[in-house]
User: Fold this.
Amino acid sequence: MAPTAINHDVATAPSTSSKGAANGSQYVASKEPLTSSGSLDHFAHFESTPPIGREYPELQLSDLMSSPDRYRYIRDLAIVVSQRGVVFLRGQSGLTVEMQKEFVDLLGKLSGRPETSGLHVHPLIEGKRDVGVNEKNDHDEKISVISSQLSKKLAGGGYGGERYMNAKRGWHSDMTFEHIPSDYAILKMRVTPSSGGDTLWASGYEAFDRLSRPYQQFLESLTATHDNPGFVASSQRLGFAIHPGPRGAPENVGTDLIASHPIIRTNPVTGWKSLYSVLDQVQQINELSRQESDATMSYLGRLIHENHDLQVRMKWGKDDVAIWDNRSTYHTATVDFDGSKEVRTGNRAVSMGERPYLDPNSKSRREALGLM
Assistant:
């Protein structure tokens, strides 16, 4: 079976765009959200919290990948991830590096991303070769090794540094400095500390729903410049070049690592609006003065930092896996273990999606689910 055999209602990524009225927000014509076939309903699962997270305690991704119905399973799982924000699976020892890459690539393909998008190559790949994807220290440019050892090196100090003293600095979505940022990401944890090192996710859907309608409308008229000066500084300090691209999409080229995106974006899989441009990944709101931008960003950041009831926390075990939708979630690692004595290492593969856009006819999550 080829992937196209089940693509009859897969959402097509935006191919044309217009300018929002009196502002720079891009939007496209309305599209119907994807509908699940129900293929995963018989697998045991539970919702981690009401607004975000689902866990499948028995499901093995290696079984899905080897199934004759794998395209139907993976497409439905993409829909679940986009609806719930993040999905957790335990003890995925059978998931190889090649399976992991193929799986996240299929998540994007089967849910309608542009044909030109693929797997991301990290801009700091040349500085991340100290730790390989396995015990043999093999390297793969489509796998970004998440390592406390590499974090020490790239941060230029103890693991965590300022983030340890001010943990809110860690919250982010992946690769928002790219013109075509990430849709899905998958992380398989290989080595965990004896305690600590958890990861938290927060729902951009729920953050948007907590805003008053006038404030939602205000934010829908705005765009923001995203950058990552930390990556640029690390490359300069350590003397290696930023990968010039393409990094997962033909638009993702160059070494400045700067892009502009709408503050509120529509997830094409669900059709729901999400708070997207926020936290330290944003340099400035383009349509506002610096003072106005800083005040707005401070308030939006507090929605993520201070509301534990729109967050979910993952305590890792060896070979555990998390899959998340970067279009509508934020996440952060917890730097609470002794990095001089223990390590935390995992393999992450990141799919790149569509250019972020706002469909003015899309709905919020609570509105779509009748929870208002």
The chain has a mean pLDDT of 87.
